[in-house]
Amino acid sequence: MCGSLCDAVLVLVCGLPAAGKTTLVKQLVASGNTSSRLYERLSLDDLYEQRAIDDGISNPAEFNPDIWKASQHEMVLRVRNRLTENASAARGESRIQLVLLVDDNFSYRSQRKRYFHLATELHCGFGVLYMNVAVANCRARNAGRAKTGDAGAQIADEVFERMVAVFEAPNGRQNPWEVNTNEVKEVGDGSGIGDVMNALIERADHELKRRHLLQMEVQRGSAQQLCDRLSTQQNVLHRVDLRLRQWISAQLQDGATLPAGMSKSQFAGRLNRRRKCYLASIKHSYGNTLDRLHDGSEEEMLISLVLQFQHQN
Fold first, then answer.
1. So which residues are the signal peptide here (predicted)?
2. pLDDT at residue 1, rounded to an integer
3. Measured between alpha carbons, how far is 154 from 56 in angstroms, rounded to an integer?
4. Does 214 fall in a domain?
5. pLDDT for the residue 307
6. Which candidate among 25, 205, 232, 299 keeps its CA 20 to 30 Å from the CA of 103?
7. Do both 134 and 242 map to the same domain?
8. Are 170 and 230 in a shared domain?
9. Which residues contact 67 (CB under 8 A, 6 or more apart)?
């Protein structure tokens, strides 16, 4: 993990029912761990089944849209909590990298995008492991699950066909959140999955570094914009102040403008207090001042501000 930013990598394992997702994920959890990497599994099917049992559903295998939505929501919370927990625990050079495998169909791109944004928010690596198994093979396996003692995982034929119809395969050329996608055609004995995961995690680290650099560039750009804004503000205020001082000086030299019963020093004090209050009001409403600057020249804006001061009572 030397030079790696990824204390954790979130991997979505997607594909049609009976594509072999759960088999592959369980293989990784059982035999893929090393001294520097830990695989963990979160399964939507497990959450769905437990919630159905808790709600007293007699047949958990029968699809219930309300339970599915609740399970989806709970999965997001569990993923967030686990990644946050891992980030808090990650310390030192000998830290173990968590690879969190989320086992679900992920039929819709919007679902995968949601987890990409979560990984970005939590500064984690992100990847998609797409079980791209032929539909005919998945259909046959689903139909044969009862014979292999896995009837609980079997779904109705009409549900399977509906999932085939709506499934949106990952496409990194069109969707930036799916750039880091690896395809697996068949699980087999799992002998090559280690290399597949290594490549996926390496690219996840590369993408995380790229996002980190982009974020730093945005922050630097924002800081520069703030500096430029403050510089423009100070320049405008300074030039308005000079114009006002010149106008006040002219008023004091013109005896005709001196109010009756008021000395020149008193008049100067009143005008300068007005000047300071006026400058403070410009500073506090600087956004409106900038809008004026964008609508016309700086000289026009200065004339407008000075005239506004002159017409105040």
1. 1-20
2. 46
3. 20
4. no
5. 85
6. 205
7. no
8. no
9. 48, 51, 52, 55, 57
Domain with 154, as residue range(s), is 8-191
Strand partners, 181: 128
- Token representation of residue 112: 């995968």
What are the helix (H) ranges across the chain? 21-31, 44-54, 65-89, 109-121, 135-143, 157-166, 193-253, 264-284, 286-295, 298-310
Q: Quick check: is 201 in a domain?
A: no
Is 82 within 8 Å of 100 (Cβ atoms)?
yes
Please give the average per-residue pLDDT across 56-77, as a whole number. 84
pLDDT at 267: 85
128 in a domain, yes or no? yes
Residue 19 has what DSSP assignment?
S
Indicate the pTM of the whole model: 0.68
pLDDT, one tens digit per residue, over 181-195 is 999 987 776 678 889
pLDDT at position 291, please?
56
Rounded Cα distance between 24 and 30, Å, is: 10
The answer to whether residue 210 sits within a structural domain is no
Number of domains in the chain: 2
Looking at the fold, whether 165 and 240 belong to one and the same domain comes out as no
Whether 62 has a pLDDT exceeding 80, the answer reads no
Flag the least confident range among 29-33, 130-134, 252-256: 252-256
101 and 159: one domain? yes
What is the DSSP secondary-structure string of 105-167?
A: ---SHHHHHHHHHHHHHTT-EEEEEEE---HHHHHHHHHTTTTTT-GGG---HHHHHHHHHH-
